[in-house]
Structure formats: structure tokens, C-alpha cells
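Structure in, sequence out. Go:
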């Protein structure tokens, strides 16, 4: 029997300020960091940390960094996500699918993205958080927000959440293609896979039966650590490195963007850079596979700030593999994820 109604697809990325004005950056940081899944400490302590320390002091600095990144089309994170949505719309049959996109923080909101779908009277919604590796701070937060909104509806259609997609062959293939292209530039001494960091306690909280110990437990990916963000990052590296035929001893997995004084997952990217430089590395190629679109974390942090650190410590060439953005193989991956959850 043919099913009535279309399927709605909601693509969700992290979020970005509305402009590079300090006030807009502060507003974005406040919304983002007041999320209890991002800074997972009691509400009062979080409120004081965010509103009295992080937002006031970090906003002017972050605004400057956003100015380096901003383009005529605005924030790359936003326009790459719009391009991805537009290409996905071209791939899917409009008689069967409606596609919308949203940002977890700021605009366009998840409320507006879901409204586009419910206005089209969809029979089912597929939510794809655009974070390849599951973390409570990202995918978990998107799922939480969608459920918070959906629970106010009279009619709640079937909803499917895609938890992670690190094992999708087209996700790995897209990185392989981008890596191959970048590797034409030089014969690199090391290949660095730098992922967004997380406080260590968030890894421990997600651990099943105390399995994750933040060390050798991530050398294999299996049912015991299937939701461990760190294990998923190492697993992503292993798959991409194997496709590119990179020798194990030349590949480094590490974690960037630490915020505050608590321990975050290690090794830290900065320490790995210094270690490689100390071993005499001159040319390094960096991948950022925790992000599917270029943003502050890739272009500025990895592409500029870490490059500076490497050059200061004796390195000569530091190149960054561009993100998936709206790469055709990546669009095929999203198309397949949607169709296989339909
Ligand atoms: C406690 C703080 C943070 C956690 C935990 C965290 C997890 C996390 N974030 C991303 C992806 C992105 N983060 C981005 C920016 C960003 N992240 C934090 C803090 C935490 N992130 C801050 C304060 C900022 C703002 C930038 C700054 O002021 O330095 C971005 C880029 C957004 C953009 O507009 O370009 C992304 C993307 C992941 C994947 C993740 C956990 C796995
Ligand atoms: Fe972040
Ligand atoms: Fe682990």
C-alpha cells in the first residue's frame, strides 16, 4: 500500500553568530554555553561561568576571529550547510521529500526548521545532526532540542534520529578524495587528525560499565565503546588513514579547542604539534574530520593558529585539508543516510 504524505529531513549544524559584532557573538556564546549538555555543571555555576567570565571576556576575542573567517555570504558554517541542503533537494524526489536546515544555536532555529516540515504535513521526520561522531554536547543536544519541541505538538509524526555516521563508506570516501587531492602538494612527514575536544568527564559519563579509561580503550571500536566520542574519533582516523594508505607511525589523532581549566580529552593538538616538530617534522597535513563544514575551528584554529605553532617550533609547511562542505561524495553520503532511514 502506498504511503501518504512526504518525509521531512532536518539537517542541523552547531550554530554561528548572526554577525561579527561583539554583541552578536556574546549572544551566540551565551546561548551555546548555557546548554547543560555543553557545559555540564550545575545551573548556577554554569550561569556564573558563562555570564560573568566566558561571554564578557571571550566575546571580543572571538568576534575578531570571526572577522577573519567571515565572507560576503556570511559565516561559512551557515552557507556551506545551506549549499548542502540545496544539493540534497536536487537529489531527492520532491514528491517524496521536504528538506530543511537549522542551527542548534541562533539562526535559523530548530523551531523554524521543524515548522517548515510540519507545514508540509510530513508523515515522518528524519533528523540528521551534522556531527559525524556522537557526543552528548552536539548530537545529544540536537536530539534533546527536537524532542523538547515535538513534545508540545498534538500530532507527533514518526521521528528518526541519526546518531553518528562514522562508518558510512561515502563519508570515509569523501575524506579520502579530499586527502588525495591535498597530498599532491607535498610529501608530508606526518598526517594530523585534529578533532574538537571534550571535557574528559563527558567521556567518562558516556562510558558503558566503566569501559572507557581515556587511553588504550579507544584502540578498537566495538559495542562496549560505540558511543564513546574519543573511540569514534580514533576509528574515523583509522578508516581514512587506511583508505589513503598512510603508515601508522605517521598518523596522529589529537583534540583541539580546550576551554577552561578542567582536563579535556588528550592528546592535545598543540602538544602533538610540538612533539612532531621536536622529532624534526617539516611538513604536516592536517585533517579536521569532526566538522563537515569549514568554520572557525578548521579555518582559523587549525589552518592559522596551529600552523603558527608548528612554524614557530621549526616546521616549514602546514596544510589543511578543506572540509566536506558541499562536496558531491558527501552529498551522496547524506542522500544515502536519508534514503536508508526512510
Ligand atoms: C565547553 C565548551 C565546548 C564544548 C564541550 C564543545 C563541543 C563541541 N563543539 C563542536 C563543534 C564546534 N564548536 C565551535 C565553536 C565553539 N565551541 C566552543 C566550546 C565548546 N564546544 C566555543 C566557545 C566555540 C566558539 C568559538 C570561540 O569562541 O572560540 C564550532 C564553530 C562555529 C562557527 O561558527 O564557526 C563548531 C563547528 C563539536 C563537534 C563538539 C564536540 C564534539
Ligand atoms: Fe565547540
Ligand atoms: Fe573510550
Amino acid at each position: 500500500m502506498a504511503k501518504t504524505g512526504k518525509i521531512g529531513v532536518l539537517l542541523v549544524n552547531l550554530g554561528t553568530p548572526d554577525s561579527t559584532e561583539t554583541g552578536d557573538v556574546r549572544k551566540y556564546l551565551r546561548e551555546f554555553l548555557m546548554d547543560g549538555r555543553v557545559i555540564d555543571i550545575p545551573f548556577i555555576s554554569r550561569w556564573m561561568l558563562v555570564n560573568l567570565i566566558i561571554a564578557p571576556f571571550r566575546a571580543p576575542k572571538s568576534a575578531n576571529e570571526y572577522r577573519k573567517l567571515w565572507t560576503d555570504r556570511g559565516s561559512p558554517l551557515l552557507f556551506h550547510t545551506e549549499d548542502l541542503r540545496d544539493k540534497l533537494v536536487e537529489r531527492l524526489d520532491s514528491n517524496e521529500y521536504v528538506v530543511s536546515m537549522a542551527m542548534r544555536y541562533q539562526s535559523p532555529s530548530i523551531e523554524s526548521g521543524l515548522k517548515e516540515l510540519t507545514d508540509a504535513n510530513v508523515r515522518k521526520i528524519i533528523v540528521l545532526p551534522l556531527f559525524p561522531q556522537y557526543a552528548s554536547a552536539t548530537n545529544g543536544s540536537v536530539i534533546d532540542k527536537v524532542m523538547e519541541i515535538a513534545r508540545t505538538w498534538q500530532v507527533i509524526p514518526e521521528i528518526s534520529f541519526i546518531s553518528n555516521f562514522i562508518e558510512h563508506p561515502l563519508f570515509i570516501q569523501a575524506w579520502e578524495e579530499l586527502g588525495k587531492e591535498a597530498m599532491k602538494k607535498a610529501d608530508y612527514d606526518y598526517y594530523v587528525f585534529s578533532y574538537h575536544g571534550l571535557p574528559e568527564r563527558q567521556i567518562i559519563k558516556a562510558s558503558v560499565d566503566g569501559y572507557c579509561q581515556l587511553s588504550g580503550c579507544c584502540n578498537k571500536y566495538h559495542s562496549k565503546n560505540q558511543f564513546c566520542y574519543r573511540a569514534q574519533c580514533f576509528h574515523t582516523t583509522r578508516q581514512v588513514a587506511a583508505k589513503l594508505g598512510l603508515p601508522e607511525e605517521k598518523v596522529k589523532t589529537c583534540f583541539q579547542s580546550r576551554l577552561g581549566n578542567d582536563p579535556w580529552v588528550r592528546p592535545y593538538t598543540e602538544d602533538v604539534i610540538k612533539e612532531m616538530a621536536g622529532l624534526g617534522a617539516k611538513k604536516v597535513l592536517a585533517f579536521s574530520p569532526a566538522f563537515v563544514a569549514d568554520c572557525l575551528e578548521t579555518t582559523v584554529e587549525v589552518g592559522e593558529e596551529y600552523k603558527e605553532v608548528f612554524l614557530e617550533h621549526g616546521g616549514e609547511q602546514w596544510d589543511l585539508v578543506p572540509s566536506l562542505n558541499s562536496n558531491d561524495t558527501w552529498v551522496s553520503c547524506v542522500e544515502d543516510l536519508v534514503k536508508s532511514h526512510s
